[in-house]
Design a protein that fits this description.
With about 260 residues, the protein is an alpha/beta fold. Helices cover about 40% and strands about 25% of the residues. The longest helix has 14 residues.
Length: about 260
């Protein structure tokens, strides 16, 4: 468990410098997430998996009088967040979503944008979120679901039948995690977003650059021939214009306390 968590932490720390340039999809989804909360009464707000601070900064804009805390596992992301948002009253904390370093009922609103899919124990993380929320608090999250990059995984599996892939959570698993954590008024939705890449190499390089290259539990090296075979299968089965189509399943979740 610790090894995988450390792997995720290192991957996202290494990606911090390029993250904002490459994550327009993340920002678009994040803007919509924050918009859902602007009418809430939230004097204390926690952004879990804050990355370089985009959501925390948006929250500060809409809730200028609120205490805002940005939390992330990766120290590199927090360093970048602090640099980019100098002079803005946001506290940056390095910690794991599965063990939040806060007292019970510390926050009125928890936001998390495309982060919880990396948590090893989603139920433990949901229980922690419920614990630190005040009575009447709200938990708003987005995360990538199990159908994300399904075309890539199918193509990889064709070339490497024994390759182990870390499964991303399903809609049902997220709903169950929120239920087991004791949240009320649970609402779960999802959408499939299609993104075009020129080829498999570009897709893999993009995933690596944003720190999301830890889905494989195997240390498979894609040599030139193997990469060509994966790309050929991908192009044959999932073409899009002159390139390839990649699915991103975005799960939207809400729970109240």
């Amino acid at each position: 468990m610790k090894t995988f968590t450390d792997k995720i932490r290192r991957a996202f720390s290494d990606a911090a410098d390029q993250y904002d340039i490459l994550t327009s999809l993340h920002k678009e989804i994040g803007r919509e997430l924050v918009k859902k909360t602007v009418r809430l009464n939230a004097p204390r707000i926690l952004d879990v998996g804050c990355g370089t601070g985009y959501i925390a900064n948006k929250a500060k804009f809409f809730f200028p009088e609120s205490v805002i805390v940005g939390l992330d596992l990766a120290e590199g992301m927090l360093m970048k967040a602090s640099e980019q948002h100098t002079g803005i009253a946001i506290d940056w904390v390095q910690a794991d979503a599965q063990k939040l370093p806060f007292k019970d009922h510390s926050f009125d609103l928890i936001l998390s944008n495309l982060s919880y899919q990396w948590v090893l124990d989603i139920q433990a993380a949901a229980r922690e979120a419920a614990r630190v929320l005040s009575t009447g608090g709200n938990f708003y999250i987005t995360l990538f679901g199990s159908r994300t990059c399904q075309e890539l995984f199918q193509s990889l599996h064709t070339v490497f039948p024994d390759m182990a892939i870390k499964a991303l959570p399903t809609v049902a698993e997220i709903a169950n995690a929120l239920t087991q954590a004791g949240f009320k008024n649970i609402a779960i939705d999802y959408e499939i977003i299609k993104v075009e890449f020129r080829n498999v190499r570009e897709l893999l390089e993009w995933l690596k650059a944003i720190g999301s290259n830890s889905l494989s539990d195997s240390n498979v090296f894609l040599g030139k021939e193997a990469l060509a075979n994966v790309d050929a299968h991908y192009r044959r089965h999932f073409p899009y214009n002159e390139g390839i189509s990649t699915s991103f399943e975005v799960i939207w979740g809400h729970g109240g306390t």
